[in-house]
Amino acid sequence: MPQELSLFFFSKKTRLLSLLHCICTHITEAAPKYLYHDCPNTTLFTPKSTYQTNLNTLLSSLSSVAATDADGFANATTGKNPLDCAYGLFLCRGDIAATACGDCVANASKEILSNCPKEKDSIIWYAECMLRYSNHNIFSVEQDAPAFVLMNVVNISSPSSFAQLLKDTTDELVERAASDGSGKRFAVKDADISSSKRLYTLAQCTPDLTSVECKACLQGAIKNLPIDKEGGRVLAPSCNRFELYQFYNETVFHGAPALAPTLAPPPAAVVAAPSSSTVRSKGAGVMSSGVLRTASNLLNVSSQRSNHQKINFCGTIHLSLIFFFFFFNFLSICTHITEAAPEYLHHDCPNTTLFTPKSTYQTNLNTLLSSLSSVAATDADGFANDTAGKNPLDRAYGLFLFRGDIAATACGDCVANASKEILSNCPKEKDSIIWYAECMLRYSNHSIFSVKQDAPAIVFMNVVNISSPSSFAQLLKDTTDELVESAASDGSGKRFAVKDADISSSKRLYTLAQCTPDLTSAECKACLQGAIKNLPIDKEGGRVLAPSCNVRFELYQFYNETVLHEAPAPAPTLAPPPAAVVAAPPPSSTVRSKGVRVMSSGVLCTAGVVFFLFPF
To answer: Quick check: 221 and 322 in contact, CB under 8 A?
Structure first.
């Protein structure tokens, strides 16, 4: 992955990176956040072959280097025979602590073999690092495919002025990264959008690129940024991003710069001439917070090369990749086991109905969120609703839903985190919702209980096209039809179901569906059927998030079978509110309809580089 260009812009009210350190015997960090992987099956190796032995040695070597070296980048090769040589490299984001880099590369070394068990040419992206290997030399070779574009589904209110600001900011950002004196080819820059919003950008190239190559790669990537959206990024062997919240770690970035990576030069005898034929071109996948689109010719970089030092390898080309990573959270706990921080997905809070600071509604809302957090921390049901306030004009209604395959202990953490973040993201709005990979939390000034609501809807999709769309579409329909019936009639009361099916002898389809348990079976079925209509049936993955239900499919297992196979918990028991405070469901006019938002984030057209991944 030659370089990384990440541009984000974030609201001042949004807290991005939480770096929690505890002063104990040592610090525990959250597990690396997987984004996406790519491993075309055009070139396979035989199990127990010499190439596999060399590959295992290579990954072990890279993991060892990452664990003991603070450079954040290294490349290496293993094998004497050019036909069996394995070439690999890793790049950690420039604002990541050295310890987190080692953990990420070690995790990536295991997961890439799990996701790509027989492929000779593979790449995997995490929020904190990128790892890649191949059977041909990939060093100092600019590569623009496969490429994945992630974008925020929200449109910029003033596109013309923002486009100019983004251009001016990224122009300077590119110059800084290309001429980075630390040798990391890394830079960040922010700028004022308005009195209440700032633009945050990040760019990075692999250090084995020349300044000219880095600049060319980043400029090419910037051309594919969604300049009319509130955030975006590209993952490729070249990529980038921008958002309305700060996503990089200033604590690490403002520390003393590490020394430039020192790469050992290869023996002259093993240097091979670069070959353009080794660079695959698959086009770019566009993802937003909802769905993805494909784009071609993402980057057109210079083919000039210059001499660079590199670790022992069998060929001579350096492949430099640019990549972008999502923000990450460090969570440390000293006395007991640490779980990864909940993974934020999206929030929605229209400013059509606002409350006054220190008003009765705000007091009721704070009471409501505290109550929901307490219930989530002590109850294993995974769903609850509640109200706060006696006067209907100031009453707050709220609920949370936890994903059905997640352990109960994680539910409390997610709802507690959501209760804080929703107030940070939606400080004055009476009607708000926030989604995490693990849970959903929403509240309103009108009753939202037992009311089917399918908007706003956020769609995530994988950028990779299905090879046999017609047969896959039928399989997906048959599988989700049964999935909907299972969820709607779920005897545990959770309105949750998963189902998998064979696509071929080597691929399986995995699906998941869930409704809020306060819906009837018919309402749940209707909600899921509506959501399924928005799934990207020609892609390798997708998901739809709505207030009352969510559905997702992937070509890899993303749900927790261990929890699913445990004895089902009893149906959630919801304490009815006092008759005096129960409000009739609002008329249909109170249910906002915004249509479906497509996000691709690599995988979502608002899908992320990975569906954008997809927590639900």
So the answer is: yes
Tokens found for residue 537 = 């049936």
Residues 6+ apart with CB under 8 A from 166: 7, 199, 201, 225, 227, 242
Nearest to 5 by CA among 226, 209, 286, 203: 203
Q: Answer for the pair 327, 247: CB distance below 8 angstroms, yes or no.
A: yes
Residue 487 has pLDDT above 70, yes or no: yes
CA angle 493, 494, 499 (to 5 degrees): 115
The β-bridge partners of 484 are none
Whether domain 457-572 has CATH 3.30.200.20 = no
User: Mind giving me the DSSP string for 357-384?
Assistant: TT-HHHHHHHHHHHHHHHHHHH-SSSEE
What is the rounded distance in angstroms from the CA atom of residue 397 to the CA atom of residue 387? 5
Q: Which residues lie closer than 8 Å to 522 by C-beta, 6 or more apart?
A: 488
pTM of the model: 0.47
Residue 324's contacts (CB-CB under 8 Å, 6 or more residues apart) are: 4, 5, 6, 7, 150, 202, 233, 234, 235, 239, 240, 241, 609
DSSP line for 434-478: EEESSEEEEEESS--TT-----SEEEEE-SSBPSSHHHHHHHHHH
Separation CA 105–CA 121 (nearest Å): 17
pLDDT tens per residue, range 580-613: 222 222 222 222 233 454 544 333 332 222 223 2
Measured CA to CA, the distance from residue 76 to residue 98 in angstroms comes to 19
Residues of the chain with CATH 3.30.430.20: 344-444, 457-572
What pairing do the DSSP bridges indicate for beta strands 596-599 and 457-461? Answer: parallel
C-alpha span between 548 and 435 (Å, rounded): 12
Q: Which helix (H) or strand (E) holds 501?
A: strand 496-502
Instruction: Judge contact between 20 and 332, C-beta under 8 A.
Output: yes
**C-alpha span between 263 and 277 (Å, rounded):** 26
The CATH class of the 344-444 domain is alpha beta
Residue pointed to by tokens 């209509």: 533
* Percentage of residues in the chain having pLDDT higher than 70: 68
Residue 461 carries which side chain, given as an amino acid letter? Answer: M
Q: What is the pLDDT of residue 269?
A: 27
Q: Give the end-to-end CA distance of the chain in Å, rounded to a whole number.
A: 28
Q: Tell me which H or E stretch contains 243.
A: strand 241-243
